[in-house]
Amino acid sequence: MKAIIPVAGAGTKLRPHTYTQPKALIPLAGRTILSIIVDQLVEAGIREFVFVVGYLGEKIQHYVEKKYPDLTMHFVQQNSREGTGHAILLTREVVKNDEVLIVLGDTIVECDFKEVINAPHSLLGVKKVDDPRNFGVAELHESGTISRVIEKPQIPKSNLALVGMYKIRETEQMYQCLEDNVQKQLRSHDEFQLTDALECMIQHGVQFNAFKVNNWFDCGRKETLLETNAILLKKYKLATNPVLPYENTIIIPPVSIGEGCNIKNSIIGPNVAIGDNTVVSYSIVKDSIIGSFSNLYEVVLKSSLIGSDANIRGLSQSLNIGDNTEIDLG
Question: Which residues form the Nucleotidyl transferase domain (predicted)?
């Protein structure tokens, strides 16, 4: 089985960070979104990965090749962002007729991955949500098999959202449906959707079962990213770097601090992740993500997302700042 991870999106909802950093490489609980996904799949036994890259794709390739030198990797370029369906279609020559596990590159789920991989039928990951109109939605037969899927319905008939994880056995049919949709220019919400190809497969008799994930973390927006960071810091606290004593500094767990950081006269935490080689002085930081090689001096930050190589002086309450930024709030 091969894993397909589409990471070609521009991440417009996380700008300005995604002008210089792919969304999948944003730090999260001392790791990155992408490394959490790949680690889960490797632990389940998958050794061959297909990454669909586009915007800043060279950074994705450099990162995974350096971090996972023992894995078999393929990189497929999506030059025009025309949706997840278009992205998956581009992997056809690499995948051929092998079974695949598709995991979207901005989605972290918790489930029994080995059970999913070994299932005798194709599976779609689902979870109940309060408002399914912003997601792909699955409707079920009484038997538990999926009767229909639809992308972002205005009047949903189900509250089961597709979480962005798909185990596909019938890859030949999937690629044929994707190709037919592209040739016929069948778009939903101005893009070629993977959901539409799955519905095509269902109409042609392919059986999909639903599996409910234990947790689902959507990392596509600042608010949900910070919330996910807090949850995962608590979950991964034993796996993160041990907190070292810093000069005249109070650390309130859970906190992840990268290597080479210089922190003094500050209060850090709770729910803070700091990248490598960052300097923090005379500051208070809580519920925030701070990138690598940044410099914070006399700031008060809460619910903030700070990119790498940022330089901030003064006082603030909530910021959303990209890489290579300098701000003086004094």
Answer: 2-233
Q: Which residue has the higher pLDDT, 329 or 2?
A: 2
d(CA 304, CA 275): 14
Residue whose structure tokens are 């509250």:
159
Beta bridge partners of residue 302, listed in sequence order: 286
pLDDT of 14 strictly over 50: no
Residues 157 and 260 in one domain: no
Answer yes or no: do 237 and 216 share one domain. Answer: no
User: Which spans in 236-286 are helix H?
Assistant: none
Indicate if 277 and 140 belong to the same structural domain.
Answer: no
Question: Which amino acid is it at 5?
Answer: I
For the entire predicted model, the pTM comes to 0.85
Q: Please, which pLDDT band fits residue 292 given cuts at 50, 70 and 90?
A: confident
- Closest by Cα among 82, 69, 76, 70 to 94: 76
User: Can you tell me whether residue 219 is helix, strand or coil?
Assistant: coil
On average, the pLDDT of the chain sits at 87
> What three-state secondary structure class fits 15?
coil
Q: Which amino acid is at 26?
A: I
